[in-house]
Amino acid sequence: MGQNFYIAKQPILDLNGDIYGYELLFRAFDRDGKLKAIFKDELLATAKVLVNALNHFGMNSLVDENVAFINIDQEFLLDTLIFSIPKDRFILEILENTDVNENTVNRIKKLKEMGYRLALDDVHCSNGFIEKFTPIFPYIDVLKLDVSLVKENTIEKYLENFKKYRFKLLAEKVETQEQFHKYKAYGCELFQGYFFAKPTIMQKESIDPAYKKIFQLVNLLDSEYTEMKEIVKELESEVELTIQLLRFINSCYIGLRTEIKSIQQVVMMLGKKPLKQWLLLIAFSKSMESEAKMAKNPMLELAQNRSRIMAELAKKMRNISYDSHEASFVGILSLVDALLKIPIDIVLDEIHVDSDIKDALINRNGELGKLLDLVVAIEKFDMPKTDSILDELHLTNTELSDVLQKSYTK
Prior knowledge:
By secondary structure, this protein is α/β, with parallel strands linked by helices.
């Protein structure tokens, strides 16, 4: 069984009523079994929203190719975790209770220079508020006017002042058609509120990786002596992390053109530092959860066994068009539909898997498909079929025995 993950999203519309983006909001069950929107630790809530969006849902399935707004409190703003957020997919929403000081201004300026987009949340037009946030106005891309807080008799004065900046005006908490037309006349280009749509609760079953394994990988990445092949080997033994990593890479790169053939390829695409930041984000989001909830699913272990056996068999085969990493990859993904309770073709489309690997998994075609058939036959103790496939693959029973002994003693 997987674990259920929740997130809420509320659309943000442009002047034509088209989707500009979505605000992603924290949702979780409390002790009474009620879905809640408020969390006492804003930093942890932000980390959980990011992990759920990037790893469990996948950004493309959650918001398509639109941008996502996410709340960033002062602690998260100044934490290095913020650099784990893909800048092409998110607009960072600075909260109204942020303390504007030298540290926050410098961090906001740095984020802007790095290409991040920023919004300022819950703006109300008062002298104190405007004076407080004026130092960061040059770096803001979207100014969110809270229509429930704005005083009608003062707004035009402030709107005139806003014209010297380049940010878009967004009217939030719009609840009536009258408010929509009024703020459209004021110059707002974007709109959000119950008048258009309430937040939609999204649910998805996914796999939660073991906490200890995350830190083992982080330690490996921290070591200057660790080679990438060691990282790849560790990830190939962790099915749940692999699936999340595949969703993450597709969440970060819209329209990823390169079809994925192996975990080695993904690790090389990311590099050590982004991979470490991704792992730390997962670790932090899990920091208050009990490891007792992370019981191993037997299917995960079966997928790991398949991965090891297929990789070892591939090493013994000659004149093949794939390598052991690709064989391992097929083994890892061979039970993904049963684990996630989602048809395998949908999962593979979502994570942009190489067409040959997809064909092997869905139709059992090609050399990799035949290798997967062999492993399944072994699991079922179907010896006639095992012997038949061994002949087709030009493998001996002795070679198979060596592989099985090596794989099951790990």
